[in-house]
Amino acid sequence: MKVEQIYTGCLAHAAYYVESNGEAAVFDPLREVEPYLERAKKDNAKIKYVFETHFHADFVSGHLDLKKKAGAEIVFGPLAKPAYEATVAEDGQIFKVGNYKVKVIHTPGHTMESTTYLLIDEKGKEHGIITGDTLFIGDVGRPDLAQHVISELTEEKLAAHLYDSLRNKIMPLSDDIIVYPNHGAGSACGKKMSKETSDTLGHQKKTNYALRADMTKEEFIKELLTGLTAPPGYFPQNVLMNIKGYESLDTIMERGQQPLSPDAFEAASNETHALMIDTRKAQDFSKGFIPNSINIGLEGNFAQWVGEMIPDVKQHILLITYPGKEEEAITRLSRVGYDNTIGYLEGGFESWKKANKEIDSIDRITASDLEQIQKGKKHLIFDVRKKSEFDSEHAVDAVNVPLNEINQHLAQFPKEGSFVLHCEGGYRSMIAASILKQRGWDNFVDVIEGFNAIKETDIPRSEFVEPTSML
User: What does pTM read for this prediction?
Assistant: First the structure.
């Protein structure tokens, strides 16, 4: 039996390809399905099933395109109600793929339809569990997402279900079983996920806080719900897309891969009011960009930050990328449901410059520059890292406005005087800088390499204390 984890770092997402004796199954695939089709072709295997552990919130699954292109049967666990043809399995139902078996274990809690799939090898040995968002390495799935789609499913009710699922369905399994989760560290679907992407169940029983043997249900619920931050706004929209269906990725790629000259790009922006996303690196964007464009760099957690910062997945988008990066940008947007890219700037930003179009820029300084500035008239410093990062260590008197909350707190940024922006390394602060520029601020500078560089100076810092915050 071949079990292959296909990990995509920018979404901290793991899909699984399992093959035996010429038949294959794919679990929780991403939107672009060609990698799975190529793996099956290489093995001379037919993809028989697409197993979905639940209706995902943080990405749009590729199950519908796999059904269309490979003839695969879509399988959900109990209680799922997809709006398209699919098999809704019963708890305990067995599916055969080649010489191995996949057993359905209904594990409600993250969502009510959440299901774990037990892999049983050719010799009848229980090999591993594909857990979706029920059990991560070091964590379990957050139980507060389904209520954003079905209001009566409170986080307390779901947490109670998850406690029962873990104790009654997962923990009784053999310690040597391998846990194959849907996400790793960096995903917003949990709060304490490990960087490891698989482990034995026995080790998780010893190290995962949520699997403590002596934990009561009340203790579990309290500990699980403590410290949860608000989920990204696009999550409920992705859930509905996964339930109701969506356009084929082929259609989305054809629509988005429309090269536009600078004049055509400018006209499209004016006529459609599309959001212009510039996916270049922060240092290149800062030196020159199209006025009113937003920088979300393709080299970082691009899709996640698009999802955090753009409320409506139906938003029309125009792209500015490095030449040759257009297809990658459209694909990564589609992974989180942003399917309405309507074109890109042909030739990239250089073509805009050559056309003598209007250009804006953002001033940047080094941490050493900031150190010298602060010796004179001190400037207000805005730190756009997460609150947990800020609380751990920050520049004295800095104000914490997490990037994903910036649109709700624009009034905190002064229109008079000067201020300074920074994050950890410069990626997030350039997103913030481009948003502020778009909204009319021009009285700030961004710190190159952010807090990583600030820590190398003598700028006073506070550690593990309550933050100074204006929020």
Answer: 0.91
